[in-house]
Amino acid sequence: MGNDGGSIPTRRELVKSPTRRATHSQLRDSNAQTQEYHWSTCPLSKRPLASPVVSDSSGRLYNKDSILEWLLRGTEAFGDGEEVLDGRVKSLRDVLEIKFDISKEDGQDKWVCPVSRKGLLAGVRAVYLVPCGHAFLESAIKEIKGNEGVCLQCGTAYEADNVIPINPVLDEDAQSLRNRIKILSEKGLGHTLRKLSDGKSKKRKKGFKESEKLPKKEETSIKNAATASLTSKVLEDEKMKNKRRKTEMSDNLRSLFSTKEQDDASGRNDFMSRGYTIPTKR
């Protein structure tokens, strides 16, 4: 009980100093269950990861159709999109499609390292290369000698700074990725090493005057067939949602109105409910 003569409490027992609690992000990153979530679920759409999968400058994985939907609709598609992406994705140039080697196990597709054939999943240090996008175990990249700076799958050259950890856990890796994208931005390059748009119009670059008008293009073509199909699918789904929203009526709104059959069956045919008609001359 205390303070009854049987015990003498000390100051440490009476006055408890506030303890520093870890932030929510630190607890989430240190949790193995969260790592499993990042390797299996798109943080933007909250749907399971499915090919094609892309990654931004932070090393996080997303569904490509979710990124397209975000670029087309913004917060209307995903309310927490700005918090999840943190301004890292402004166009398709800010994401790179990851090329995973797939192995069939128990009838399911699993991502594996093409060198060691070990699984790429939560709990392992996996990386992908920029600009080709092939994914490997980090140990496979370091142990193989004689192929430094060359992708083991396609032979594309890469630099050490462009080895991106997938779903990084350590703060050092996250800080290194932030420093990398900062240096690339100063050079006018994006995460995929492609040049960023400077915001100037093409007319000014080519020397056109403001009064001159260029003919409008009726259609805009997308070179990548996979990206074009995903974009058309997202646009078609959006049209169907808008059409359904206009045509369908909620039950609460429908209950405010009644049909002619309901009025005749219930006998609601008095002066107040039947309305008024203008008599015609004979």
From TrEMBL:
Record region (Disordered): 1-34, 195-282
A GO BP annotation: DNA replication termination
Record's protein name: DUF602-domain-containing protein
Compositionally biased region (Basic and acidic residues): 208-221
Domain of life: Eukaryota
Polar residues bias locations: 24-34, 222-232, 250-259
Organism (species): Morchella conica CCBAS932
Annotated InterPro entries: Rtf2, Rtf2_RING-finger, Znf_RING/FYVE/PHD
Assigned protein family: Belongs to the rtf2 family.
Pfam families: Rtf2 (PF04641)
Cellular compartments per GO CC: nucleus
